[in-house]
Amino acid sequence: MPLSARNRMRGVVKAVEKGEVAAQVKIEISGPATLTAMITKEAVEELGLKKGDKVEAVIKATEVMVSKGE
Amino acid sequence: MPLSARNRMRGVVKAVEKGEVAAQVKIEISGPATLTAMITKEAVEELGLKKGDKVEAVIKATEVMVSKGE
Amino acid sequence: MPLSARNRMRGVVKAVEKGEVAAQVKIEISGPATLTAMITKEAVEELGLKKGDKVEAVIKATEVMVSKGE
Amino acid sequence: MPLSARNRMRGVVKAVEKGEVAAQVKIEISGPATLTAMITKEAVEELGLKKGDKVEAVIKATEVMVSKGE
Amino acid sequence: MPLSARNRMRGVVKAVEKGEVAAQVKIEISGPATLTAMITKEAVEELGLKKGDKVEAVIKATEVMVSKGE
Amino acid sequence: MPLSARNRMRGVVKAVEKGEVAAQVKIEISGPATLTAMITKEAVEELGLKKGDKVEAVIKATEVMVSKGE
Q1: Nearest chain F Cα to E59, which residue?
Q2: Residue B27 maps to a domain
Q3: CATH of the domain at C45
Q4: What is the pTM assigned to this prediction?
Q5: What is the ipTM of this complex?
Q6: Residue F16: closest C-alpha in chain D
């Protein structure tokens, strides 16, 4: 794994919604969870992201928060 | 769910490593995946995070990247 | 406080502007300051954010910069 | 204001804690709130940050989350 | 330099594309590289960003990842 | 390019400084600029980052700010 980002999760694109500049990608990861990514529309188009694609969600460790308790 | 952050994943704290200011928390989420969070040591202490705690990893959608292809 | 994010500021929603994917929320916090958040439109709709809502702005410590001098 | 970051809050440095690489700065902003920033130790030293300094906390809008409800 | 953000790169605005809320700014930095920034449309308008403007890209150190190998 | 992050800059590692949890990596990119990354010490060790390594700095577009004027 050549990138310093600590977190990678395999999943499948469930939905891609493009705005004029931003885009939202829903990724179904193993188990019941779904991840939401807000990335540039440009990235969606360059990667050719579409429903059904096998992808990885990549997240830098400094961006992960922890919640505990009710 | 009262927070705008789109992503929450339930998991169990596997390891907590504290530096002087930063701290690293490993969270085993369902399936084989493990998430790494870099948060303040202060947060680790206020939440009393320790191995075995049931927690949620919380991630804002703007922080999630997507990787596709090999 | 169950979330590791170190910063919470109470305020009132002053304006919500939705794009197709992104949304901008203006939050008047105590004092003359106003905070701007760019979050997903989906989050705005799930939280039902509208002008006048009492909310909290939540910010992870790793995202705060410090400026000093003129 | 020459920076695109939407959020600036004036405050006073209450505490600086340096790790080996990271550093934590507590900033008392007007009202009862205190902000926590995790920045590089290098930045703390280049800015000469110390208790009592008048500073501004600067936060990009994409990093602000919104919490609503109890 | 009064801001704790560690990274500044001088460049020239090559393109500005505005969505309803978000905006994308392409910055040609010295050498062949081009940086892409996603910021609020509001910031684009307040700074009056347009093609040909001399600007600086500013990036907090906690947001920079490192990739190595093929 | 398989990752949605819009920004990649080739460079050479100039310095690596490890704390207990965080680590700072200085990357000399082409031209006179140097980038600073704060990443986990774990990532530094897994990538085997050391002075002289050819690397890329990778930055998500939502993390880039723009500064204009004096």
Answers
A1: F64
A2: yes
A3: 2.40.50.100
A4: 0.88
A5: 0.88
A6: D21
